[in-house]
Amino acid sequence: MSNNHAISKLDDLITTLIDSVKGYEHSAEKIQSVEYQTLFRDLAGERTKAVDLLQDRSRALGGKPNAFGSMAGTVHRQMEGLFVALGGGDKAVIQAIDRGEDYLREEFERVLKDEAIDEETQAIVRRAHESVAHGHMVVKGLKDQLAAA
């Protein structure tokens, strides 16, 4: 049985997770709050571990996982920088991260529902998804805090 489908789905997740790592690193540079800078760097580190986990599984299935993000992720980070430059401040950064987290969560949920992917790969995707769920929860909390302020 071919592993091409699972490898393809893993590679899509890897690319999106790399975008997330770069996004958190970029946001840590743009945000004013030192507390948020530390938080975003920590989340980037957590996502890097998820990338490594998925890359290892892709290799085990015979894949050659990429080590770079997408053009869409690059554009997303540039837009975040523009919104900050236009006076959006920390709120613009957190809103950009929130949009990215929503997209990432949707991508993972699609793969987790894919019955054509073997159980061992699904288990590894679920482990990587823990980082996504954690980041989504943290960013939602930040967004809610800003809305209440």
If you had to describe this structure to a student in words, what would you say it looks like?
This protein has 149 residues and is mainly alpha-helical. The chain has helices at 4-30, 34-60, 71-112, 119-148. Helix 1 (4-30) runs antiparallel to helix 2. The radius of gyration is 16 Å and the shape is elongated. The model has no long low-confidence stretch (mean pLDDT 86).
Strand percentage, roughly?
Answer: under 5%
Backbone CA Rg: 16 Å
Shape: elongated
Distance between the termini: 55 Å
In the predicted model, the low-confidence regions spanning at least 5 consecutive residues are: none
In total, how many beta strands?
A: 0
Q: Label the structural class.
A: mainly alpha
Q: Helical segment tally?
A: 4
| Largest sheet geometry | none
Overall average residue pLDDT: 86
The helicity comes to over 70%
Oligomer: single chain
H and E order? HHHH
What characteristics describe this protein?
0% strand; 85% helix; mainly alpha; 149 residues
Helices and strands, with pairings:
Elements: H1 4-30, H2 34-60, H3 71-112, H4 119-148
Helix pairs in contact: 1-2, 1-3, 2-4, 3-4
Give a brief description.
The protein is mostly helical and 149 residues long.
